[in-house]
Structure formats: structure tokens, C-alpha cells
Amino acid sequence: VERSKGVQVYGDKMPWSKTWEDFRFRPSEVTVWAGQNGHRKSMVLGQVMLWIAREKKVAIASLEMKPTETLWRMCLQAAGSSTGGTPTEEFIREFSAFADNCILIYDQLDSVKTEKILGFVHYAAKHLGCDHIVIDSLAKAGISVEDRQGETEFINRLAWAAKHLNCHIHLVAHIRKPQSGMEHKPATKYEVKGSSTLVD
């Protein structure tokens, strides 16, 4: 897409057309998805991955949710089901066949050592051909809350992996607890928990 100032916009789109000329997920980059607990970061990211999976292969390490729960939620999103609606058996079978080809789930829960996560990223990109890799979340990446140096090293290694494996890495992070009454104010990068390197 050529914009009026001559800047070329490229990369994979989000599902919402109003974002297409302003934001893309480009190869060799890392996106940090940050927000408060319960503000549906993972759900929105799942919707985006579902959209991208129509044309690209994605891998998801959802360390806070069982693989079956991740896929079921994505199935509901694909069906456009409300929280009370259930897709038909035929739709579930069709979704399962679709997901078998383009959505890979890392079957681990709770805290996973950073070396294993980095190994998952490498394997998913280099050996399985995944263009987008999700790590949900930084809090489960085997790094102590106080270990800023460990976080810095981890994000630097993720950035290196994205560049050298030509993939896009999505990292879910949390923000600091907002002051009372400020829960619905949009967060800035300065509120992201952890090392400043995460957003630099």
C-alpha cells in the first residue's frame, strides 16, 4: 500500500479494515500486547491469529490456558458465536480441519524456562514454517518478577530470533495496576510491567 507521503505499508493485516493503512505485522519484528488482567488481550490476539491463519501458519504458546481451551475459543470466534452459542458439529469439524493445517499449539502450561520458549520459537519458525508466533505471556516465561536483566536478555533474544528466522513474534505482557478510577484509561508504554527494554 502506497501512502500519500510515499511511505510503503507492508506486512500482515489485522481483521479490522480501518487499521490496514496504519498498522501491519511485518516480518522480523516483535509486537508487545500489553494490558490489564481481564481486559481480553489473549482473546483479541486469538482473533487476530485466526484472521492471519487464513493465509499464513501460526504457532501459539498459550501458557495460561489448555490447548483445547485455546482452540475452542478460536472455534467460537470463527463461528461468530456469542458466549451462549455453540457452533454446529459440522462447523466444529471444518474448523478442526482448518486448524490442523495452519494453527499449531505449544502444549505446555504454567511457567516454562526461557530456553524452552526460545527453542519453541526456533522450531516453529524454522522447521514448521510458522510466520507468526505467540508467547502468552511474559509472566510465564521463566523469569523472576525482579529480574530486569533476565527480561532484557529475553526480549533481545526474541528480537534476534524474529530477525534471523524472518517471522513475527507476539509477546503478551501486563501493565502496572492503575490508580483507582483509571481502569479504563488507555495505557501507555510506560505502564508496561518489567524492563524498559520490552517497549524500547
Describe the structure.
This protein has 200 residues and is an alpha/beta fold. 36% of the residues lie in helices and 14% in strands. A five-stranded parallel sheet has the order 1-5-4-2-3, with helices on both faces. Helix 5 (148-165) links the parallel strand 4 and strand 5. Helix 1 (41-52) crosses helix 2, helix 2 crosses helix 3 and helix 4 (114-127) runs parallel beside helix 5. The two termini are 27 Å apart. The mean pLDDT is 89.
Helix content, binned percent: 25-40%
Regarding quaternary structure, how should these chains be classified? single chain
Low-confidence stretches: none
Class by SSE composition: alpha/beta
How many beta-strand elements? 5
Let me know the average pLDDT.
89
Q: In percent terms, what proportion of residues is strand? A: 5-15%
Q: Biggest β-sheet: count, sense, barrel?
A: 5 strands, parallel
Topology, element by element:
Layout: E1 29-35, H1 41-52, E2 58-62, H2 67-79, H3 89-102, E3 103-105, H4 114-127, E4 132-136, H5 148-165, E5 168-174
Parallel strand pairs: 1-5, 2-3, 2-4, 4-5
Helix pairs in contact: 1-2, 2-3, 4-5
